[in-house]
Design a protein that fits this description.
single chain, mainly alpha, 7 helices, flat
Length: 152
């Protein structure tokens, strides 16, 4: 592992942590309510579990792309595009952190109090998004190299 791969490894680990967290709260409806799940979703535990585990699966795939970009696991298809899209998705969620902090400071108006867990989630998403995007930029040239064909 070289120093350039650190950000992609970090981003992958953040995605795996988010997947574990998502899977855990999907199993406990009370925790899902505490983290903002709607009453309609919580009143249907099989749906809550199914959706929670699907989101966790998507986050695991994001983590695998981070590790693939770092060269820890084999190269996944559409690696550069995947890392770009993942980084942009995380960043779009994470950009709320800036607005939340400005609302907490009183600079922007807020409809009500901002739950602290939303601030942490937004911050984590912003950090992950930046790690994916900066890691992709730093490793762009290395990631453009086509893998050698398999020997039959």
């Amino acid at each position: 592992m070289d120093k350039k791969s650190f950000l992609l490894i970090f981003a992958g680990i953040l995605s795996f942590c988010a997947a574990i967290f998502q899977a855990i709260i999907a199993f406990v409806p009370k925790w899902s309510v505490a983290f903002g799940a709607s009453d309609a979703l919580v009143s249907n535990p099989p749906l809550l579990l199914t959706l929670g585990l699907l989101v966790a699966l998507v986050l695991v795939i994001f983590g695998l792309y981070g590790l693939s970009g770092a060269g820890i696991i084999r190269r996944l298809p559409l690696l550069r595009l995947g890392l770009l899209v993942i980084g942009l998705l995380y960043s779009m969620v994470g950009i709320n952190f800036i607005f939340q902090v400005l609302a907490i400071m009183g600079i922007l108006p807020s409809a009500g109090p901002i739950p602290i867990y939303l601030v942490f989630v937004s911050f984590g998403a912003l950090v992950a998004g930046l790690a994916y995007l900066i890691g992709l930029a730093v490793n762009w040239k290395r990631l453009s190299i086509k893998p050698a064909p398999a020997v039959s």
